[in-house]
């Protein structure tokens, strides 16, 4: 009994990996570099180019990274999860450190006037990690390290969440806490008196529609990069308010 119990989590994790492979997340390790930004508090990692806000409230905590332009995909990679390990540096890699798993929550902006340390310029694959995550795999004095990384399924608690912002003529929806593939590639919205409307990608994981849907309950169809589509019917009731967040009953 004891043995079979301990195998259960392994079994589910393996199933998850098999699912992800079959839907196209590439699990092979690739080469990149990593730095860190901010301090141990993580204050500088809040907000950012993905449109997320207080990363603690939103469930991401300090297990986050900013991505270079080449990985960011104009914000569509926001929410994806990466497993990262420090390599090829016996001096600065922490010996025996477990690979970290981080969610993409920000952009490491390119700087075309710089001539040194231009890690985040295209076409380079670069992770600008939170201080906490960087110092889990390397000594902070290293500054920049070589890493191997791969996409892994995101593990999230609870359902997909929708934060509603804007005004009666412009509705912008932040989609977050997305499990598995993690990165949303398409969103459609339906008011209780409308058909399905394809939302436009605004910035980060913000999606918008120019339409007055005040007073109508809202449903969403969300597609992630793995091609999986989930429907969230009437996730926001007809008395929904701007500035509020509504949580779906399911996750990817
Ligand atoms: C870009 O790099 C230059 C040269 O190092 C620096 O002076 C400038 O402040 C940087 N710009 C930004 C936006 O960080
Ligand atoms: C959404 O889906 C359509 C095809 O249905 C595709 O052309 C488009 O590039 C997708 N992504 C975004 C960000 O709209």
TrEMBL record:
SMART domains in the record: DPBB_1
Subcellular location, principal: secreted
Residue intervals of the Expansin-like CBD domain: 169-248
Locations listed in the record: Secreted, Cell wall; Membrane
Gene3D superfamilies for the chain: Expansin, cellulose-binding-like domain, RlpA-like domain
Keyword terms, alphabetized: Cell wall, Cell wall biogenesis/degradation, Membrane, Secreted, Signal
GO cellular component: extracellular region; membrane
Highest taxon of source: Eukaryota
Coiled-coil positions: none
Signal peptide: 1-22
Family: Belongs to the expansin family. Expansin A subfamily.
Name by which UniProt lists this protein: Expansin
Organism: Vicia faba
